[in-house]
């Protein structure tokens, strides 16, 4: 993890505020100000408060909007990164996460998240008929905390009974991201607020008075200045613009965007079975499928893996057709005739790498009291929080009154999952509707 210490020497200008009426302003100094209400920001907030830090989280839209709510909710243990039989850094970085999450979800370890909805306590791995697929399944067993357990044919779920190769169970839990967001937010509800990012005035490092933000209450119009010892940007794709407003314009080169074009499938539960798992084809994850129920009690599959990587170069219509063909290939017993298909774009904001590929783990960069953070995977949010917490100054121990000051501010809701916002659904023979 590399820290950058360059100073850009920028100062905040009051020009934009000269025409506004003068309102009484309250100034509050806190230890930690977090931007971004996804899993990374919420987990860090909880860890920081439990460690004694006076902290507040600001979200501009909805909790988890973007990467967290787009996630399939799999608590990866590294199998998908070790299909070639090599214990690479990505697999090493994530292999301890399932045990930690399992303890938290069972209420045995802080943060105690027993209220989070666990969709499944395990995933399945299955093969296509290719030799490369069989080799990939062998590679998945090497050096991991969570290794696949091969199932007898009568132990397989019905949707995988007709698969020609090995089917294995993998003890990677699948959670409902919306439920996780709600549970984490409820633990620190009085330290989370919705704010208007466009109307806010940022106080960047180098201004002479620390770093923070000036907010105006949306109803009363009263002004509040929050000054923080440390600011953490955990806003995914929003990090560069926030960094610039804090006087760090060169931070845009610290982040990369890797696009995904995810597929969706929906149907009645008797037509679309519940399934969580990965189809392995050589050293690649051909498809990754997770299941949920929509508001009309239809089952929905999120379909990722290689299909979402290749889908980046496809239109939504082409991806729907490709998804249908892939499902028929990897799930021989599935009847797709009564199913509808959709798609959504899910760009991944990550710490930039030299080759533009996925970072090996979570990471953050700190300079001038402003930390830019990227968890890389949902499962790595606890590790990112631990790493950031270890880098912070000791808690001040002061009682700032920030909870009382923010008590009348609006709170962000949890973002809607992608299948509730996708409007272009179609079966494989019709136009979108």
Head-to-tail CA distance between termini = 47 Å
> How large a portion of the residues is in β-strands, by DSSP E?
15-25%
Assign the structural class, choosing from mainly alpha, mainly beta, alpha/beta, alpha+beta, or little secondary structure: alpha+beta
Count every helix, treating DSSP H or I runs of 4 or more residues as helices: 12
Q: Which spans have pLDDT < 50 for at least 5 consecutive residues? A: 1-22
| Secondary structure tally: strands | 20
Give the radius of gyration: 23 Å
Mean pLDDT: 87
Q: Architecture of the largest domain, according to CATH?
A: 2-Layer Sandwich
Class of the largest domain, according to the CATH hierarchy?
Alpha Beta
Largest sheet: 8 strands, mixed
Describe the structure.
The chain has 433 residues and is an alpha+beta fold. It has two domains: 23-68 and 180-256 and 350-405, FAD/NAD(P)-binding domain (3-Layer(bba) Sandwich); 74-175 and 260-345, 2-Layer Sandwich (D-Amino Acid Oxidase, Chain A, domain 2), CATH 3.30.9. The chain is built from twelve helices and 20 strands. The protein has helices at residues 39-50, 67-70, 89-94, 97-105, 131-139, 177-187, 239-245, 306-310, 316-330, 381-391, 402-405, 418-421, and strands spanning 25-35, 55-59, 118-120, 123-127, 149-150, 167-170, 174-175, 192-194, 201-203, 211-216, 223-233, 255-258, 261-267, 277-281, 284-293, 299-304, 340-345, 348-351, 363-367, 370-374. The strands form four sheets. Strands 1, 2, 8, 9, 10, 11, 19 and 20 form an eight-stranded mixed beta sheet that branches. β15 (284-293) and β16 form a beta hairpin. α1 (39-50) packs parallel to α6 and α1 (39-50) packs across α10. The longest helix is centred in the last third of the chain and has 15 residues, at 316-330. The radius of gyration is 23 Å and the shape is elongated. Mean pLDDT is 87; it is low at 1-22.
